[in-house]
Amino acid sequence: MGLYLLPAALFLAVLALYPFIELIHMSVSQVSSDNIFGDWPFIGTAGVQAVAVTADFREAAVNSLIYVGLVVGVGLGGGLAAALVLWRGGPLSGFTLALMVFSWALPGLINGVDWRFLLDPRGMVDTILSVARVAPVYWLVEGRLPLVSVALVNAWTVVPFATLVFRAALLDMPGEVLAAADVDGARPRQTLRYIVLPLLRPTILVLTILSLLYAFKSFDFIYIMTFGGPGTASTTLPFLSYRLAFEIYKFSDGAAVAVITLGLTILMALVYLRSVHREERA
Amino acid sequence: MNELDQGSSLLDRGLSRRQLLKGAAAGAGSLALAGSLAEFLAACGGNTTTTTTSKLDANTAGNLEVWHYSSQQDVKTIQDYSALFSQKYPKVNVKLTYVEFSEMPKRAIAAAGAKQGPDVFIYGGNEVNAMYKAGVFKSADSYWQSFADKGQFPDGVITRFNNKVYGIKGYVNLTGLWYNQDILDAVGVAVPKTIDDLNNAFAKIKAAGKVPIALTGQPTDQGDWTAFPWLSGYGFSYKNPESSAIEQAFALVSDWSKKGYLPKESVQWGQAETFNRWAVGDVAFMENGNWNIGPASRNVGSKFKYGTTPLPAASGKQGIFLGGEALWIGGFSKVPDIAWAYMQETLLSKEGLLITLKESGGIPARHDMSGLPDVTNNPLLAAYTSEVKDHGAEYPPEGGAAIAAQAVIAQNWSAVIAGQKSPSQAAKDASDGVKANYKA
To answer: Which residues of A touch B135 (CB under 8 A)?
Structure first.
C-alpha cells in the first residue's frame, strides 16, 4: 500500500515541498539580485516583521480581504442561484451549463483580456449603458472600482464551478423529503430555506473553503486587467509579493509576503480539512 | 549588497553617470548635426571595414539562439537582422525566440540559475543591473576592445559593469510629442513649443470635441519612462527627488486628467495602446517614441496628416530617456564568438542600423551615419534628434540601480492620472519612496 503512495509522495516532495522550503528559507534570509545564486545571509523573522508593518502591505491586506469577500460571496451566491434555476434539467439547461463550463475552462489570461476590453470606457459594457443614458463608468480606473471590478470578473469564473457542484448536490437530494415538503404545503421559499439550504450545508462549506483558497491566491486577473493599479489601488497580497520579487528584485521581501499569505491559506486549508473530517465522521 | 552599496558600486565604476549622459547626448546629438550624403556614401563602403572575429568565416557552422521581444508587428526587423547575418555566415543556424518584454528579465535570471540561456539578448529594459548581477550576461569587453568601429559609438550607448563593456545600443529611441495636423488646423492652433502653448491648445481641442492627448499612465516602467520628461523638467532626478518638483509635474498631469484633456483610462495604456488610441484619429497629441514612425506610416497612412515636435519642457533641466535595444552576449553561451559576430553584423553595422531606421525609426548611434539622408531629411526624426542633443538622459537611470525607485514614480504617476491621489499626496509618497529605495 505504502509503495503505491511513493510516486505521489515524490511528486509532492519535488513540486510542492521543495519550493515551499526554499520559500521559507528565502523569507528568513537577505536575498536580492546580488546574491540570488550565492549565499543567503540569515536574518530570521526580521524580514517578515519589517514587511508586515509597511503601508504597502497593509493596503494589500485590506484589498485582499475585499477581493476574497467579493469572489467568494458573489461566486457562491451566483452559483447557488444558477444551480437552482438549472436544477430541473432540460435542453436549455444543458446548453446553459455547457456555456458556463466553457467560460470556466477558459484560461484566466483570456478571460482577463476579454473583460479588460469589455470594461474599457469605449467598450461594450459602457456602450450598452450609454443606451440608457448612463455616463461612462471608469470600471478599471476610479476609486475602489478597479479592485471591485476585477473581483467580480474573478467571481464570474467561480460561478460555473459552484453551479456544477451545487447542481450535483441538488440532484442528489432525497426526493421524498422535497415531496413531503410539497405535500405539507411549503412554499418554494420555505422549501429553499428550511429543506434545501440545510441539506446543502456540507456542500456550501466545502465550496466556501475551496473558493476562499482560490480567491486568496488569485493573481492572473489582477496582472492582466490592472497590474495592481491605478497606482496600487488593486494590489493584493499575491500581487505585492510578485512585484517585490520580480519587478524590483527584493526576493526576500517578496518571499516574506508570500509566506504570510501562505500562512493564511494554510489556516483556511486546515479549516477545510477539519470540516471534511467532521462530515466524514457524521 | 544593500541599496547603499549598490549606489557606491556605481560610483566605483570610475565612470561618472553624468559623463555617460553627456557622451550619449553629444554622440547621438551629432546625428542632428548632419553630415553630407557624400560622406555617408563614402563611409558606406560595406561592412568590409568592420572587423569580425578572425576565427570565423563563411564556413563557420553552429547554432545561435537570440532572445527578443519584438511582437508580430515589428518582428520583421529582427528577421531582417538575421538574414543580414546569414549572408555572411550561411552555415550558422539562427533561432529567434520571442520572450515577452516584461518576462525577459525573469526568464533570463531563471535560466541563468540553471546555467542556461540564449547566445544573444536583444534587450533595452531597465532591469539590466539585476540581470548582470544574476550572471545573465557575458562581458563583451575583449571583443569590443578589438572592434575596429568602436570609435563610431558614443560612450552613452555602451553599458559597462565593473568597467567592462557588456551591452551596446546601436541606435537610440526616445519619446517626443506626436500631433494630428488635421485637428490642429481645424481648431486653429499652432504646434506647441511651451507648456503654456500646450495647455492653451488642449482647451481649444477639448472645446472642439476632440481628445487633446494620449500618453502612458500604467504603473509600470513604461509609465516611469513617460513621466520622466515632465518630472525632470521641474527639477526632479532620482538623486534629488524633491517633493516640490514632483508635485508641479503631478499637478500638471492631474489638471489634464480632471479637465478631460487626458483620458483617465490611460492608466491602462502601455506605449502600444497609446499609439493605437492616437491612430484612431480623434486624439490631437500623443507622447510616444520615434519607433512609431514605421507603424504610423502603415496604420495612419493618409488617414490624417501628422508630425512630431520636441516635448515642451518646464525648464532646461528636462531629461528624456535614451532607450533603444542593446545587444548582449548570453552569460552561458557556448558560442560567444558567433554571438559577437551576430552583434557586429546586425545592430552594430551600418546595414543593420539602416534596417532599424527604415523599419522602425530607430536613430543610428554611429557617428558615420549622422549624415544619412534618411535621418537628416526625415521631418519626423528631426524633433527626436534635437531632443537627443538637448535633453538626452541615460536609460536605465543610474545604471539600473534605481529600479525600485522607478516603480514608485510609476505607481504615483498612475495614481494621479486616475485621481486616486492628489498631486501633493502623490508627490510626497513618490519623494519618500524614491529616497527610501534609491540612495546615490
So the answer is: 37
Q: Give chain A's domains with CATH numbers.
A: 57-281 (1.10.3720.10)
Of B268, B403, B426, the CB nearest to A248: B403
Evaluate whether B64 touches B92 at the Cβ level (below 8 Å).
yes
Q: Which helix (H) or strand (E) holds B81?
A: helix B75-88
Pair B119, B243 in one domain: no
Inter-chain residue contact A138 with B437, CB threshold 8 Å: no
B284 alpha-carbon distance from chain centroid? 23
Within 8 A of A138 by CB-CB distance, chain B residues are 264-265, 418
Which residues from chain B sit within 8 angstroms of residue A250, using beta carbons?
A: 404
CATH number at residue B219: 3.40.190.10
Is any Cβ of chain B less than 8 angstroms from the Cβ of A54? no
Domain with B259 in it: 175-321+397-437
Determine the residue type at A24: I
**Statement to judge: residues B101 and B132 lie in one domain:** yes
Q: Is the pLDDT of residue B277 over 70?
A: yes
Are B53 and B99 members of one domain?
Answer: yes
Parallel, antiparallel, or unpaired: how do β-strands B320-321 and B392-393 relate?
parallel
Query: Distance (Å, rounded) from C-alpha A236 to C-alpha A65?
Result: 9
Contacts of A115 in chain B (CB under 8 A): none
Contact call for A229 and B411, based on CB within 8 A: yes
Chain B hits for A37, Cβ within 8 Å: 112-113, 134-135
Same domain, B113 and B180: no
ipTM: 0.86
Residue A138 Cα, gap to closest chain B Cα (Å)? 7
Cβ of residue A218 closer than 8 Å to a chain B Cβ: no
Question: Following CA atoms A219, A272, A45, B3 in sequence, which dihedral angle do they give, to the nearest 10 degrees?
Answer: 0
Q: Does B220 touch chain A (CB under 8 A)?
A: yes
Q: Indicate the range of A70-74, B2-6, B88-92, B123-127 predicted with least confidence.
A: B2-6
Average of per-residue pLDDT across B275-286:
96
A37–B135 C-beta distance less than 8 A: yes
Residue A128 predicted with pLDDT over 90: yes
pLDDT given at position B440: 56
Bridge pairing between strands B306-309 and B137-138: unpaired
Overall residue count recorded for chain A in this entry: 282
Selecting from A32, A33, A230 the residue whose C-beta is nearest the C-beta of B417 gives: A230
Same domain, B86 and B128: yes
Alpha helix (H) ranges present in B117-270? 128-133, 141-145, 181-187, 195-207, 221-233, 243-258
Residue A51 β-bridge partners: none
B281 & B429 share domain:
yes
